[in-house]
Structures are given as C-alpha cells and as structure tokens.
Design brief:
Blueprint: H1 13-22, H2 29-49, H3 53-57, E1 75-79, E2 96-99, H4 103-114, E3 119-122, E4 136-140
Parallel strand pairs: 1-4, 2-3
GO molecular function, one term: oxidoreductase activity
Family: Belongs to the GMC oxidoreductase family.
Keywords: FAD, Flavoprotein, Oxidoreductase
Length: about 140
C-alpha cells in the first residue's frame, strides 16, 4: 500500500500525504475509492469544524437577518385508553384531522389552524413540556 517497508504510522506526515495522494491515480480501484472516501471525510469534517468557513463564505453561523415570529397557541391533549365498562367513548369535535406531526403534518396543521380551522393532530408519541414552553397540556382519563 505504501511502497515502503516502514509502517505508515512511523512515516513523516509529508510522506504519508504523498502516499495517500498517489492512491488517486492508482490502477487498483480500491486505492482510488479509499482516496476519494478519505478526502470526502476530511473535507466534510473541515467544513463542519472550521471556525473561518462562515466568514470566508460571508454567511453567519447563526441567523441574524430575521426575528422569530410569535408561535401559534396550541393545546396538547393526552388520551389514555379507557377500558372500564360503562364509560362512553371520548368525543372530540374538529374540522380537520392530521395524522402525524412530522414535517408535512406540522406545516399543514399550522397553516390550517392559522386559517381558522379547528385542527386535531394525531400522534403516536407523548408530548413532554420543555422549559419555557407556553403551550397548555391536559390529560383526559388520567
């Protein structure tokens, strides 16, 4: 792989760089693939960790050109199964039911709610309040 009897970790950095750069033009396909994979990893890690890349590109690390908008008031309702005999089923009146609160469901429910519709988003997970969360939460059948 290196063309030397000396293990690669004992070679100088300049020699190691020269060896790895030579893999790019190697006739053996695995060496070329290894070279491309290593350079992709190095470039990606440099882009993610470089303190100067944002100033070079003229793009700030955090958004500075806008203000956060006021959130839409919402309420979370936790429904637990009620298997006791004689209890009527839970009835909720709504205009629209959105299944799932992923990317599409969240945007659709936000737009519908801002348009005046009563929207119910059904999700298979529990919602946990975070510090500073202004939403209200109620639990029926608790």
């Amino acid at each position: 792989m290196t063309g030397s009897t000396t293990p690669i970790h004992q070679l100088s950095v300049a020699v190691r760089a020269k060896i790895i750069s030579a893999w790019d033009t190697s006739r053996l396909a695995p060496f070329g693939a290894t070279y491309r994979a290593l350079t992709a990893i190095v470039k990606t890690s440099w882009l993610l960790s470089s303190p100067t890349i944002n100033s070079v590109l003229g793009f700030p690390r955090v958004p500075i050109h806008g203000k956060p908008a006021k959130g839409f008031r919402h309420e979370f309702l936790h429904l637990l199964p009620n298997n006791e005999p004689g209890n009527p089923p839970e009835t909720i009146t709504t205009d629209v039911v959105v299944i799932g609160s992923g990317c599409g469901g969240a945007v659709a429910s936000k737009n519908l709610a801002e348009s005046g519709y009563r929207v119910l988003v059904v999700e298979n997970e529990w919602y946990t309040l975070t510090q500073g969360d202004s939403s209200s939460i109620s639990c029926r059948s608790c």
